[in-house]
Amino acid sequence: MNEELEFEFVKYARVWIPDPDEVWKSAELTKDYKQGDGILHLQLEDGTNLQHKLDPSTKTLPHLRNPDILVGENDLTALSYLHEPAVLHNLKVRFIDSKLIYTYCGIVLVAINPYETLPIYGAEIINAYSGQNMGDMDPHIFAVAEEAYKQMARDERNQSIIVSGESGAGKTVSAKYAMRYFATVSGSASEANVEEKVLASNPIMEAIGNAKTTRNDNSSRFGKYIEIGFDKRYHITGANMRTYLLEKSRVVFQADEERNYHIFYQLCASSRLPEFKALKLGGANDFHYTKQGRNPVIDGVDDAREMSTTRSAFSLLGITELYQMGLFQVLAAILHLGNVDVKDRDADSSMILPNNSHLMVFCDLMGVAYQDMSHWLCHKKLKTATETYIKPLPRVQAVNARDALAKHIYAKLFTWIVEHINQALHSTVQQHSFIGVLDIYGFETFEINSFEQFCINYANEKLQQQFNMHVFKLEQEEYMKEQIPWTLIDFYDNQPCINLIEAKMGVLDLLDEECRMPKGSDDSWAQKLYNTHLKTCALFQKPRMSNKAFIIQHFADKVEYQCEGFLAKNKDTVNEEQIHVLKASKFDLLVELFQDEEKVTSPTGAGPPTGGRTRLSVKPDKGKSSQASKEHKKTVGLQFRNSLQLLMETLNATTPHYVRCIKPNDYKYAFTFDPKRAVQQLRACGVLETIRISAAGFPSRWTYQEFFSRYRVLMKQKDVQSDKKMTCKNVLEKLVQDPDKYQFGKTKIFFRAGQVAYLEKLRADKLRAACIRIQKTIRCWLARKKFLRVKRATITIQRHVRGYQARCLATFLRRTRAAVIIQKFQRMYVQRKRYQRMQAAALAVQCILRAYMARQQYKMLLRENKAIVIQKMVRGWLARQWYRRSLAAVVYLQCCVRRMCARRQLKKLKIEARSVEHYKKLNIGMENKIMQLQRRIDEQNKENRVMSERLSSAETAHATEGERMRRELTRLRGAEEEAKSSANRVVSLQEELERLRVELQSTQKEKKAIEDWAQTYQDEMEKMISELKEQNHLLKNEKNDLNRLIQEQGQQWTEKMQRALKDQTSQLECDLNEERSRYQNLLTEHLRLEEKYDDLKEEMTLTMNVPKPGHRRTDSAHSSNESEYTYNSELAESEELSRGMEDVTKGTLDMALVLKLQKRVSELEQEKQGLQNELDRREEQFQRARARDDEEHKKARGAELEYESLKRQELESENKKLRHDLGEMRRALVGTAGAGSAAPGSPAYKVLLDQLNASTEELEVRKEEVLILRSQLVSQKEAMQHKVRGHTRSCKETMTDSLQYVEDVQNLTDAKEISQAYMGLKDTNRAPPPDMRNINEDGELWLVYEGLKETNRLLESQLQAQRRSHEAELEVLRGELQAVKEENHRQQQLLAQNLQLPPEARIEASLQHEITRLTNENLMLPTEDPKVYRTNILRRMIDLLEQVEKQDKTVRKLKKQLKVFAKKISDLEGGQMENVSPSQMVDEPIHPVNIPRREKDFQGMLEYKKEDELKLVKNLILELKPRGVAVNMIPGLPAYILFMCLRHADYLNDDQKVRALLTSVINSIKKILKKRGEDFETVSFWLANTCRFLHCLKQYSGDEQFMKYNSPKQNEHCLSNFDLAEYRQVLSDLAIQIYQQLIKCMENILQPMIVSGMLEHETIQGVSGVKPTGLRKRTSSIADEGTYTLDSILRQLSSFHATMCQHGTDPELIKQVVKQQFYIIGAVTLNNLLLRKDMCSWSKGMQIRYNVSQLEEWLRDKNLMVCGAKETLEPLIQAAQLLQVKKKTDEDAEAICSMCNALTTAQIVKVLNLYTPVNAFEERVSVTFIRTIQNRLRDRKESPQLLLDTKVIYPVTFPFSPSSLALETIQIPGSLNLGFLTRV
User: Which residues contact residue 1560 at a Cβ distance below 8 angstroms, ignoring those fewer than 6 apart?
Assistant: First the structure.
């Protein structure tokens, strides 16, 4: 003990000392404590020094503080020092700093009310806790619920969750979340959603049982125990609720700042609703029962909305609107009853005024008589042994009776609602087990405590006893399991306190006895208590200053109870006559409430005494009806004791789980911790007792592996052995000398309190010593490096200094030598100067003398020289004068001549400059413009010349025409002279000539006008040239500016459009992904409903048709006539039914379940039939609309054709009439000529007749040519109809539009109609000839000549027009004849080519050529002048051409359908073995085989009989083993085989066979996936084959978008009869379902590996250590044999990848699967990281980053870096980086905000709050830093969701992947047992 004290209480040790404000305060020892010291020298955290005196009697030392590394633990039992201050501090740190409201304390979950909504109860949190061990996740109410659920399933034992705490601590919310968890994870086992009903009971019970108090806005004023029932599969079957201690007194009385039950205020808030008008309600302040608290409104609560929620919950639980209105009617009556005013009549009686409005409303609502109720409210009936009499009540007693009636009615209503809720939650399914949730009040103590607090504390005493026994039992089991010597632990047993309350002659027994006394009172009862227990029981005390109170020492604290009101509340009576009045009511619901009511009187028959503040009601236990009267006469205390006993029996029969709710402060402040209130509740709820029991034994427990991993640093190398257990024992014996401080169990080491702190200190010291050694070495290395650097620097400095000194010495020597030299030269200089002066003086004298003599001689020479110079100058001047005069004359003459020449030249230059140069200077750069304008002028001149030439030619033509006309006139004049009628003809000819002259003159005038216009235009153009020259410069500048502006704007718009396009593209991609995800989720939901329907149907079938043992029913036939939208195969159902029948044994049947299943199945079938009818109706409407449109289109087209036909007939009739008239005229002329041959004018008639006959003959020739062409067209048409007629029967529906188009073209190309239309149109401009029959009648010949004169010109013009028309028609016919010849030649060539083809291919080619030729003929009809040639028909042809373009798709379908006649013969080129790997070929066993002969007509099809369809599906799908197919055969072989079978059905044009095959395939795939959906290989195999089958349907569909990837031979194998686009959609949906099944399968395989491999396993050994844990042991991070590691995940991923590659899955699909895998890994890892405080450390961040790098390396190895999988790990990578970065300064906060862009604010803050140092030298994240992060991230717009949704499945796409494998090369192996298939 001394050594321990010396070790623990030393300098710098931290302790806890009591404090009146903070309860406990931390301090640090400044001096070592020695044995016997009475004072501890301490220093508080604020720096204050303190001397703490020890108790001299006990010398008890203060509690030691845990190391900082243990602070904030999830489990309080993990603390080394277990005591009250450690518990309080740990809870405070977790609640304030880390914002964690849940903490384990052994088996207890401590929940602190945050008074704030937290995002930790969503569906993603529930999914994260589902299936997890309780110790593996952070504390949570969901963890407790999951533990109860797992233990119920594992141990098959009922469970209970006991939620307790004082008002406002959050009990109701905790119980609600526990029930929500059960409802979410288990689901419902019946047809109704029972879990929704269970949750719907909460708002009802809160409305009628919760109220606002001073401590809680939603305080439960009753206790409840809800049993949630489960079946054998652990699905919710129903629930049952038991209630305790409803606070009835709140109905009639509320304290200040409190409210009545919520339902009353909800009614008042909804009083304006129409259905509530009859209740005559008002505001809450209008009623006495709702306004006493003077605060009827709760902030943030809308009572009207809550009323709507309550009514919805009533409806969901099956309480009808009629019953609801009845309940509201009773509640409104209670409110009106409270407003009934009772007046004093005298001192002993009272009265209610007549016609009291509120009483009248009460009586109307309750259906009772007003007189009876008003009478018995103020009177009571007393019975004696002999007589009965009525006694009036004083006003006070009458008011109490009124309130007692209101309370009694409300209690009955409450009981009725609870019973009906239980009925709604009851299920016919047999309950196998249950989980009970107990929401009950905690220990209460107030200034004034009455009967309610006594009962509450009595219940808590019972619960605490049960809790203590359970904790003690668990401790004992743990010790026995580990084979630790068991020593009795002394724990508090509160049985004496319970005996004091409930034993014989206890408090409750004496209270009941006093209630039975005729004149019992509270005072007499108090005296009995004093006399009985004051001297005999130490737990019972009497207050010093009161004789009406008593004190009981409870387990939590002493409580003083006031005796006043105990008897009245225990009796809880109501006036019997009032009950009789209510029973006589006409209101059915009220009668139902009181149908079991008996006489409600006290045992003594005494009247109701004065009521106190509150009264309590106990819901009696359900018993037989015969016991109802006896049960009702029991006192409240007795009823409560019995119900509590039943509750304890229930709890003792279950495994309990405890949730203790703590209220952190009394002011409802968010995350505010009041230590006084918290420690008070911790003492009362039993948490400290749990700590004390744990601390009494060995609270700290480690497995050997964890101990070895944590304290490996304390061991030496020689101590480490292969046996970890022996290693730990040897080390502990050396480290801990006292063997009593620890015990070795089978799998764990047990430590006493404080030993973990001692070991942690040793570990920290060892690490600190190691750190010091490392620091010493590093500092030595740094010092030596510094010394070496200084040494090198010193040597360098010395070298430079010595060099400098040497240089200075050398400089001194050089300067000395220089001084000597300077002196030498200076002295030499002085001597030289002296010598030079003397020499100079001598020379000067000599010079002066010699100079004088020289000057004299010079002067003489100078005078002679000057004389000579003067002579020279004079002679020169004379010569120059003469020269100048001569030169001037010559120059003058030259100047005159040159001037004259220059003037002439200047004149020429001026002329030139004036004409050209000036304009050149002015018009620089305009030469091009002038040239362009000049060219334009030249072009205009050319046009003018052309026009002049045209005019000239026109004049010439006119002249020629005039000449011809003159000749004709001369000829006609001669004829006239011969016929004696030339005069008139001459006049006409003159008139004609005059007209021509006039036309010639007008033409000349037009020519002159044109010439004038040309001249004017030329002048205008010249003017425009000058203007354009001026504007040119301005336009260039503007052009440059505009170009620059356009370029700038273009760049801006380009950038803007690029950004907009990018944003729009991204938005469209997001929308597309969302739409895909929504669609695929709908498919998933559809599949789930379909499976549910199948399960229900199967279960019903199995239940109704249980066969005899050994009998198995098989189907005799199987119908394949199913719709393509039907997926339930009869074969699949029959086989499943037959298999299920073998396993079903005899047993009792639940007929109710059978009937419900039958009803449900019928409902589903009716719903399905309704949907099918709706679909049929929609299709019928669509068909009718389409038929109506077609009919209208036909009518319009028929009308047009009818109009054209009528027009042709009209023209034909007119043409016939004209020809008839012409013939008659000709006959008349011939007849006239014969009658009068000598008559004048007969030669003219002959000429005219010759011309008419020639034109007629020409017309007949043209007609014959037209008939020949018509016959050719008709023959071709008949041949085409004969060839196409057989095929059009089979595809009549699909070719409707095309045949209509062909019929229109054929109608238009009919030769007869064309010729008739042509003849009619040709004669449209011809005027009708005169009727010549009159000539024959009168016989006057001169009339003929008059008619000839009038018609001659008309006939001539018509003949010319007819000639031109005939020439044009002839050209057209020649062109057509040439086209026919070319077509004939081409047809001959094609015929020669077709003769070389097989017969079937020959037919197909000929049909194809005929269709092409007819299409070309229809598209190339001749078009002529619309005035002459078939105008209306050509307009129709243009419309038809437009229709041809619109019906392009129909034509393509027609071509595909016509290909059924094409059966080309293709030679077998051998199987393309390059598609099969060599390894597969090697693996095949070598057997002697027969080499088949090549089938030249093999078309890549497989033929099968219809009766072999089931065998095909069975062998190829249902019984196929994926492993064998994937290894030994080509990938996708089943898909190719199925498609080849489908091709043959398409070849046969058998729609039923195609539909049956596709339906069977789809159903069989679904069946095999349903049967083996958990097998990854099976799902992967059929995903690959389904996609390949889908790609084959696309590749060979005949669509151009898919055919462009095919080879020519593959295009020949396209489907020809059926368009399977709808089935492609069905297969795509099936592939999506298989993909989702594959993802779920992979998720189920990966899920157990992720957390262990990514988080718990130490990939880098030794980086992270294991921290001490509490009772909730976590999964070990050390790799044992059964744990998963990162290598396990990588191996599993490689296995997935290899399997998919082996099955031939598309690479793009593999990328999507891998992306989904990595998302699941990242999401699960991050979610667990966010929910596990022990994982948020620096070392764990390093482990995670290393693991992520290994995953990225795996992606690189598989070439999958671009699939997007790495991006899904970004949130996890950033979370790991967040654990490792520095977290102190503002710069660190800025770096974190910029780095963690993939994490939400909630996730970042959560990680920072959870960050926990693993070693002592790490630091926690400060609250200030977290606040800084929150402030910086405040503007982020993101989801508040904390966890990632692991159920998200990215939308999958199936990019088209064509196969290069030729179908004709595929060989079917014999192992598939498909010998009944025949290759075609």
Answer: 1120, 1129, 1131, 1509, 1510, 1513
pTM equals: 0.60
Structure tokens at 1792: 């974190």
The rounded distance, in Å, linking the Cα atoms of 810 and 814 is 6
Residue 1703 has, within 13 A of its CA and on its CB side, a CA count of 28
**What's the mean per-residue pLDDT of the chain?**
77
Name the amino acid, one letter, at 396.
Answer: V
Identify which of 1421, 1410, 1409, 1438 has the alpha carbon closest to the alpha carbon of residue 1313: 1421
The length of the chain in residues reads: 1880
Amino acid at 314: F
Q: Output 55 or 1693, whichever has higher pLDDT.
A: 1693
Q: Dihedral of CA 506/508/512/517: which sign? A: positive
1464 Cβ contact partners less than 8 Å away, ≥ 6 residues apart: 1397, 1398, 1400, 1401, 1404, 1499, 1612
Helix axes 1707-1730, 1801-1810, angle to 10 degrees: 50
Which residues does 1460 contact at the CB level (< 8 Å), separation at least 6?
A: 1287, 1547, 1549, 1616, 1617
Neighbours of 1096 (CB within 10 A): 17
> Dihedral sign, CA of 1782, 1787, 1792, 1794?
negative
> In this structure, what token pair is assigned to residue 230?
């489960």
Cβ-proximal residues to 1047 (8 Å cutoff; 6+ apart), any chain: none
Query: What was the pLDDT predicted at 1676?
Result: 42
Cβ atoms of 163 and 178 within 8 Å: the answer is yes
From residue 366, alpha-carbon distances to 329, 407, 408 in Å are 8, 15, 14
pLDDT at 600: 36
Question: Are 328 and 373 a contacting pair, CB within 8 Å?
Answer: no
Q: What are phi and psi of 1745, to 5 degrees?
A: -65, -35
| Amino acid sitting at position 1771 | P
Rounded Cα–Cα distance for residues 1569 and 1637 (Å): 8
By the 8 A CB rule, do 24 and 16 touch? yes
| pLDDT confidence of residue 1378 | 76
Place of tokens 């079946």: 231
Specify whether the CB–CB gap between 637 and 616 falls below 8 A.
no
Q: What is the pLDDT of residues 239-286, one digit of tens each?
A: 899 998 888 888 998 888 889 999 999 999 999 999 999 899 999 999
Range 1720-1752 burial, b when 16+ CB lie within 10 A, else e: bbbbbbbbbbbbbbbbbbbbbbbbbbebbeebb
Q: Cα–Cα distance between 819 and 824 in angstroms, integer?
A: 9
Contact between residue 573 and residue 600 where contact means Cβ atoms under 8 Å apart: yes
β-pair partners for 440: 164
Helix/strand/coil (H, E, C) string of 157-197?
CCEEEEEEECCCCCHHHHHHHHHHHHHHHHCECCCCCHHHH
Q: What are the pLDDT digits (tens) for 1049-1099?
A: 888 888 888 888 887 777 777 777 777 777 777 777 777 777 777 767 766
pLDDT at 436: 93
| Residue 810, pLDDT score | 95
CA contacts within 13 A on the Cβ side of 965: 21
Kindly tell me the sign of the dihedral angle through the C-alpha atoms of 35, 36, 37, 38. positive
- Residue indicated by tokens 């014996």: 733
The three-state DSSP-derived secondary structure of 1613-1654 is: CCCCCCCCHHHHHHHHHHHHHHHHHHHHHHHHHHHHHHHHHH
CA 717/CA 730 separation, integer angstroms: 13
**Which conformational region is residue 165 in: left (phi greater than 0), alpha (psi within -120 to 50 degrees), or beta?**
left
Q: In the structure, what pLDDT confidence band is assigned to residue 1271 with cuts at 50, 70 and 90? A: low
